[in-house]
Amino acid sequence: MTACFTVTFAMLLTGTIASAVANNRSQLSETALYTASFTTSRTELSGTVEGIYTNGDGDRALVLMQFSDSSVGSFSADAANYQAFLTGSNERLDTQALGTNITGSIIVFGSTGYIGVVLDSDAPFAQQIMSLTLRANSELVYSEDAGRNLSQDLRDDGSFAEFDQWRVFVNPGASGTVEAPSLDSNRVDPVAIYYELVVAEQEEEIRTQMDEQLLQMRAVLNRIGEYDGEMSRINVDGVFIEPPEVPVQLAGDAVTGDEAEGEDESTLELETEWVHPRGFDFDWRSGSVEEGYLDAIMPADESSYVTFLNEKARAEDGSTLFSGNEMEWILTDGNDLQEYGHSNQSMKPLRDIMNNTTQAYQEYLGLKSSYQVDSYSELLELEVTLRGVDSAGSVNGDEEVLLTY
After folding, report:
1. CA distances for 10 relative to 1, 5, 296, 327, angstroms
2. How far apart are CA 308 and CA 85, in angstroms?
3. How far is CA 127 from CA 28, 29, 113, 170, 385, in A?
4. 292-326 pLDDT, tens per residue?
5. 184, 172, 58: which is closest to 124 by C-alpha?
6. Disulfide: which of 81, 199, 387, 405 matches 76 by Cβ 3.0-4.6 Å?
7. Which residues pair with 51 in a beta bridge?
8. SS3 for 285?
9. CB-based contact 297:282 (threshold 8 Å)
10. CB 170: neighbour CB atoms within 10 A?
11. Dihedral, CA atoms, 68, 71, 75, 78, nearest 10 degrees?
12. Mean pLDDT across the stretch 182-187?
C-alpha cells in the first residue's frame, strides 16, 4: 500500500510539474507585455506602455510608450537625448543571453508625449522575455529626491540613481503582439507609425461621433417637419398658425444618405446653406486625417493654417444669431399668438405647437453647432498634431543608441 501511494504521488507530482511547465510556455508564447506602466528614476515622470507592435515578418518590433499628460513638456522631445539597453531575462529577472542579434533605434513623436523603441532582429524574434532600459540623458525636471525612491529591484543597479532611467519587460516574439503595417517599411517613418497606432483610432471615434450627430439632427428635422404639418392641421375655432419664417441657420437643411448597415458604410451627409462662423462644412467622409484636409479648405489668399484656424476660433459665435423669443407667431386672424397668456387655455393647442417648434429649433442648432464646430475641429486638430510629428518628430538610429548584453 505504501508503495502504491508513493507511485501515485510521484505520478501526480510529475503530471503537475509537466502541466506547470506547459502553462508557463503557453503564457510566454502569448504574453507580449509584462510592464504596463513606468516611472523614471530621477525625474519621477510617469507613463504607460501602450503596446508591442511587430511587422509582418516578425523581425521588427516597436515598444510604444507614452508619458502621462502631466509630464508633457517635462521631457526631451529630441531622440538624440535618449539611449537604450537590452538584455534577455526570465520571470525571476535573471539576466540571460538574447536569442537573436538585435539592433535598434529610438523615436520621439514630437511633443505628443509618445516615445518608441524599434527593435530589429536578424531573424524572427525568439520566445523570450527581454529587459529594456531607457535612459534620458537630458533631465528637464528637478527632483530633490532624485534617484532615492527606487523600487527594490532597481536599488542594486547604481545606474538608476546616476541616470534618469526606466525599465520595461517585453516579449516581441509572443503571439500577443499587434501587427502594424507601418513597420514593414525599410525606413522608420514617425508620421506613418503615429498615424496608424495613435491617430487612426481617434479619427475613427470622431467619425462615429459625427455619424451619430447626423442621425440626431435628422431626427430633430423630422420632428420639426411634424410640427410644420400640425400648423396646417390643428386650429382653435378655425384659427391656425401662419407658418413662421424659418431661421436662416436651419432653413433648407436636410440630412441625406443612409446609416451604416452590415458591410455597407454610412453615407449620411448634412446639406445646408448656413455654416457656423466657427465651424466647417467640408467633405470629411471621402478624405482622412492622413491625407489632410487643411490645404483644400484654406482660402487661396491664406498661406498659414495656424492663422486660418486662429481666425476661425475667434469668429462670432453663431448661436447668438438666433433667439426663439424674437420669432413672430402670427395667427390667421391677424393676432399674435404670444399675446395670449398662459391662463388662456383655449389657445393651448396652438401654444404647444409654438413652444415645441421653438425648442426643436434650438435643439437642432445646438446639435449643428456641435457637429460643425466641435467635431470638425477635432478632426483638424488631429491633422495639426500629425503635422507636428512630421516637423518635430525625431529618430535616433546611431549604432550605439541600443546596447545589448
Report:
1. 14, 8, 75, 90
2. 45
3. 7, 6, 30, 10, 36
4. 999 999 998 888 999 999 999 998 875 566 777 77
5. 58
6. 81
7. 64
8. coil
9. yes
10. 27
11. 50
12. 94
Predicted pLDDT of residue 19: 41
Q: How far apart are CA 45 and CA 43, in angstroms?
A: 6
Question: Residues 177, 29: contact at Cβ < 8 Å?
Answer: no
Per the listing, cell 518608441 goes with 116
Orientation angle between helical segments 348-369 and 200-233, nearest 10 degrees: 160
- Asked if residues 349 and 237 have their Cβ atoms less than 8 Å apart, the reply is no
Q: E strands, 188-271, where? A: 254-256, 269-271
Q: Which residue has the cell 529577472?
A: 93
Which position has the grid cell 467633405? Answer: 283
**pTM: predicted TM-score of the whole model, two decimal places:** 0.85
Q: If you average pLDDT over residues 384-388, what whole number do you get? A: 97
**Helices 305-313 & 376-392 angle (0-180, nearest 10):** 150
Contacts of 190 (CB under 8 A, 6+ apart): 107, 109, 389, 390, 393, 394, 395
